[in-house]
């Protein structure tokens, strides 16, 4: 305490009490809701013609994912070696992976859409995988992001179908070999299933990512709460669950891309 | 639930469009064609190498065939030469054997002739010796000289009988 200080003992006391409260607050696992990790924070608030275009944590991780993808692809293909190195092998592997997936589901006509599907797969994969790093933000854990992607795919595929087949694209809703009596019912079901595609596509990815991250957060909280004696069980679970989540992160990116391919295939070749 | 805050939708969509659009353009224009080029080059190179390998294999097989043909040819020639040599040698041997045989035959005939002559000579000597001996024996036994002709004819008669 400096000489001639003006601090009253009471003030010091209340200050230290507040610090204690703050410290307790920081260590209380339930002070942060498991959903807090999904909150959008505006780093640079911006407004453009009445639209909110703020640079948020979500934007930051979209930019990071995009940057990492470009970095990965350019660093990997830096040498353009005839005999690929490790990184180039991974780049080529990802290329061949998506190319094979498209060849299997869409066929040679899908080649035009390869850049789009590749971009989609890489974007979702990198967003999911970056989300596995602690303290990051998972872009794909927001329904609006996955829904925007899914809706864009849905609209694009529908337009493509009508360009390719004209009104004949509506035959998509009339399966072969259905008795005439059942036809009205079947057509209604087919239309509903077609229209629900963007919803199922987006909700699948969003729900998987959100559920996984929420679970990890909840079990992380259990570790802290149960402490050194009881925390080992949730810790073991968390470790195993992180492994599963990495798998899910890859799998959901794959599923998203494969379903896009299947929708493309429907639009290109009517069944 | 932070995902359902409507005010947060606009910035996310805007930045999704910006980042995804930029990523798409970058990949479609730059990165993916580059990877495709490298993969294609490698495929071409591998196909070329395989073609080369097939061509070299064909060449090797042709060379092997040529070699085998040459080998068979050489073996045939060698057999032919061996047969020829054998025939020549056999003929030579036969010729030598024959001339030798003839020489031997001639010498044998000569020898036989000489033997016969010697024998005849010997017989003649035997006759005169026998006659002389007989005459001497007769002279000793009888104290009388025997008539030479008689003795000789007697010896002849004995020789003929013996």
Please supply descriptive tags for the structure shown above.
heterodimer; A: 271 residues; mainly alpha; two-stranded antiparallel sheet; 8 helices; globular; disordered N terminus; B: 162 residues; 2 helices; 0% strand
The largest beta-sheet of chain A arranges its strands as: 1-4
- How much helix, percentage-wise, in residues of chain A? 55-70%
**Largest sheet: number of strands, sense, barrel closure of chain B:** none
In DSSP terms (H or I, runs of 4 or more residues), the helix count of chain A works out at: 8
Oligomerization state of this entry?
heterodimer
Please tell me how large the radius of gyration of chain A is.
Answer: 25 Å
Structural category of chain A is: mainly alpha
Q: Tell me the Rg of chain B in angstroms.
A: 62 Å
Residue runs with pLDDT of under 50 for 5 or more positions of chain A: 1-13, 17-29
SSE class of chain B = mainly alpha
Question: How many distinct beta strands of chain B?
Answer: 0
Supply the number of structural domains of chain B.
Answer: 1
Distance between the termini of chain A: 84 Å
């Amino acid at each position: 305490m400096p000489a001639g200080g003006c601090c009253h003992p009471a003030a010091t006391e209340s200050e230290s009490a507040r610090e204690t409260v703050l410290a307790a607050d920081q260590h209380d696992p339930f002070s942060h809701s498991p959903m807090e990790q999904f909150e959008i924070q505006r780093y640079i608030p911006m407004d453009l013609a009445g639209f909110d275009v703020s640079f948020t944590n979500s934007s930051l991780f979209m930019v990071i994912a995009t940057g990492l993808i470009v970095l990965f692809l350019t660093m990997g293909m830096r040498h353009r070696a005839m005999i690929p190195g490790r990184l180039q092998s991974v780049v080529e592997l990802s290329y061949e992976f998506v190319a094979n997936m498209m060849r299997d589901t869409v066929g040679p006509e899908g080649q035009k859409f390869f850049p789009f599907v590749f971009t989609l797969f890489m974007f979702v994969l990198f967003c999911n995988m970056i989300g596995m790093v602690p303290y990051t933000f998972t872009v794909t854990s927001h329904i609006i992001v996955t829904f925007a992607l899914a809706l864009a795919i849905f609209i694009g595929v529908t337009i493509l179908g009508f360009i390719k087949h004209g009104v004949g694209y509506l035959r998509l809703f009339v399966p072969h070999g259905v008795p005439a009596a059942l036809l009205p019912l079947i057509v209604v079901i087919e239309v509903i299933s077609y229209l629900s595609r963007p919803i199922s596509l987006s909700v699948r990815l969003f729900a998987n990512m959100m559920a996984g991250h929420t679970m990890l957060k909840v079990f992380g909280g259990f570790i802290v709460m149960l402490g050194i004696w009881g925390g080992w069980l949730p810790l073991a679970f968390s470790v195993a669950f992180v492994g599963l989540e990495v798998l899910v992160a890859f799998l959901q990116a794959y599923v998203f891309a494969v379903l896009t391919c299947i929708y493309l295939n429907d639009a290109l070749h009517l069944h | 639930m932070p995902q359902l805050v409507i005010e947060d939708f606009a910035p996310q969509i805007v930045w999704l469009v910006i980042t995804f659009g930029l990523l798409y353009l970058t990949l479609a224009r730059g990165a993916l064609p580059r990877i495709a080029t490298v993969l294609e080059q490698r495929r071409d190179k591998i196909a070329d190498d395989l073609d080369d390998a097939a061509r070299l294999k064909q060449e090797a097989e042709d060379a092997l065939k040529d070699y085998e043909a040459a080998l068979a040819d050489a073996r045939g020639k060698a057999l032919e030469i061996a047969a020829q040599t054998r025939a020549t040698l056999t003929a030579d041997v036969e010729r030598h054997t024959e001339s030798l045989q003839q020489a031997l035959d001639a010498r044998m005939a000569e020898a036989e002739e000489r033997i016969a002559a010697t024998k005849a000579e010997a017989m003649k000597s035997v006759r005169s010796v026998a006659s002389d001996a007989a005459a001497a024996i007769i002279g000793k036994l009888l104290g009388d000289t025997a008539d030479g002709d008689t003795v000789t004819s007697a010896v002849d008669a004995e020789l003929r009988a013996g």
